[in-house]
Amino acid sequence: MISPENSGFINYNSLRIQQNEWTGSYFPDVPVKAQAVPNEGYEFSHWEEFPDSSSIIFLSTIPNLLTAVFIESNLNPGEIVINEINYNSNDEHDTGDWIELVNIGPSISDISGWVLKDDDDNHSFVFPEGTTLNQNEFIVIAQDNNLFESLHPSLNNVLGPLGFGLGGGGDQVRIFNNSNTLIDSLEYDDEMPWPSAPDGNGYTLELISTNLDNSSSISWISSRELYGTPGFENSSDLQISTKSSILPDESSLLDPYPNPFNGNIQIEFCAFPKFCFKMNGFIFKLKVKTLQFYCSYF
Known about the structure:
298 residues; four-stranded antiparallel beta sheet
C-alpha cells in the first residue's frame, strides 16, 4: 500500500507498484527487495510494518501487508548539490568514506549549522560556524580526516570527521539547512540501475551534471578517474556551456593526406585556441562513404 495516495511508489523486485492498493502472489520462501520511492513534493517516512527500517528492505518472509508511508516535503533543489560520493574505498587507496558538495548558485552560500545525514537520523554531521561556499566551489566531508588527508594532502577544503560511515550496499545522503529544511537528498545502491564500480573497486559515484536530478540513478556514473576527483570538477562532467559566440579566434584547414589518395582520406581542421579534429573518410566512387571524427583539445 501507498500512504497517502499518489505520494510515491514501491519497487518490489522487478515490479513498480504505483497503485494505492495492490495484491500479488509470491512463493513464501523466496526473498524479495522492496524500495519506497517518493514522488515530487514528498519524502519517505517509514514502513508501517517495519518502522525502524530504511526505504530499502529485504524480506525473507513475505508479509500479508506492506505499507510505504510518505510525508509532504519542503524539498528545495537549492544551490548546494551532492556531487560525488565515495562509499567503499579499495584497499590500495583507503580514504574512508567521503561526500563532496558544490555550490552551483550565483553567489556565496553560508552553510553554517547545516546538517548532513545518511538514512539514520541519529547519524548527523553539523557544518561548523563560518562554513561558506563560493560559486562553483567544492567542499569534501570526510569520515576520517587523517586517512583522507594522507592520500589527498594538497586539499584544503575538507571537513570532518563525519562521525559515521556510509553503507557499502546502499544508503541515503541528505542535506538539511539550519531550519531543518531538506535541501538535497538521494538514495544510492551498489547494483543496477546504479553503477557498481564504486563499490570497493577504487572508483567513486559521480554526478554526470549538476543540471540533472541527482536523486535519480540515471544521473550518476562511476568516475572515469581512479579514486575520483574530490574537491574538483567531476571527471564525468558533461555539462554544456552556452556562449554568445562560437566563432574561433583562428582556423586552418590542412592538406588532405595521403596524396595521391588511396582508399582512405584524412583531413585535419584546427580552430584556435580550442581544439583540432580529424575527418577520416573512406573513398568509394569519388564519394565519401563513411566519416569518423577524432577530437583533440589543447
